[in-house]
Amino acid sequence: MTERLHDLHSDRADRADEVLAGGRGTVIVSSMASDSHTWNLVYLELLVGELGFDVVNLGACAPDELLEYECLSRRPVMLVLSSVNGHGYQDGLRVIQRLRGCRPLRRMPVVLGGKLGTGGALTQEQTGQLLLAGFDAVFDDQQGSGSFRRFAAALPSPAGVLPMPAEGAGA
Ligand code: B12
Q1: Potential cystine with 134: which of 31, 47, 100, 166 (Cβ 3.0-4.6 Å)?
Q2: What is the CATH number of the domain that holds 49?
Q3: 88: CA distance to ligand 1 center in Å?
Q4: Is 11 among the domain residues?
């Protein structure tokens, strides 16, 4: 019995270490097929890493098949798509339809953000269509990073991993 309790305790301690070392799970950051901009992805990689996730950055012009393949093989806790070249609506709609059509990826959190339209922000109708097609959230450029941070903070921790310590709490 004592041995079992000891095992349970070490297991918990290992998991806590994992959390402190950034064990909130893997997030994939990527652009989509038409978009060759890269600094947006560098920014997102740093931001998501700062929030405690492990980040895989697929880079610019990621083909739809690559996105699907990486999501299936890595099973991220979230996919963060970025688009700044003005084709965010078209690329986003196509990609989310493909991902949601793939049964194992139906419940994976997927968000889209950046400079999504050519004439500034997307219309309410366009945003609504993206959400209806399966995005969990759409962050237009003018919103800043606050709402994205809140969304990421509310993601459930990977199964069995302890919750992140509250901000400001600590030894
Ligand atoms: C550098 C640059 C390029 C370089 C890119 C080099 C590279 N390696 O990245 C080159 C020359 C290749 C380029 C090409 C083009 N570009 Co360009 N480019 C820029 C420029 C000047 C800076 C972009 C940048 O690096 N910003 C720095 C990064 C850190 O910030 P960011 O990209 O703005 O991303 C921020 C936010 O959008 C947000 N964000 C982004 N993604 C996400 C995702 C989430 C989830 C969240 C929460 C937030 C978020 O966070 C970031 C930090 O605040 C911008 C104009 C500008 N001043 O912004 C135009 C700009 C993005 N380009 C533009 C255009 C049109 C093009 C071209 C189509 C031009 C052409 N006719 O060929 C091509 C597109 C090529 C392609 N296939 O995609 C337009 C896009 C317009 C639109 N969206 O309506 C812009 C805005 C210029 C303009 N004012 O017209 N470009």
Answers
A1: 100
A2: 3.40.50.280
A3: 11
A4: no
